[in-house]
Amino acid sequence: MKSLWEQPRRAEIHDRINHLSPERERLWGTLTAHAAIAHLSDSLRMALGEIEEAPVPGLLRRQPMKWLAINVLPMPKGVKGPAGYFTTKPGDWERDRQELVRLIERCTERASTEPWGENPFFGRLSKRQWGVLAYKHIDHHLRQFSC
Description:
The chain has helices spanning 7-19, 33-47, 65-71, 93-109, 127-144, and strands at residues 118-119, 123-124. It is an all-alpha fold. A hairpin with a 3-residue loop joins strand 1 (118-119) and strand 2 (123-124).
């Protein structure tokens, strides 16, 4: 599984973020490129425990569905994420893009032993699980804008 915590994957993501522009047309969904940047930043804030969301009951909180959804199944298109992933409103493009990069680095530097936020769909996740899910989520939205 690709993880945001792997340096080559992180470098790839940084490069793709640098090629994203606010004018990029989406291939699916309703988010603009700028809204996607804010959305991805909020998802990392949730991983860091800075945004909390009520748990969503369901099979995704249990094994093996949790493992399959994080490690195997593709990120579905058109599924609305938790409200906590839409907390930040887009502001200045460059500032918001740099904030996403900064949040990626903050997550990367966080020790595995430090507490991580709870995901509303999957419950408690390890640093490794957050790394896989974060890579998958960021990749999904960058592909949404052909980046």
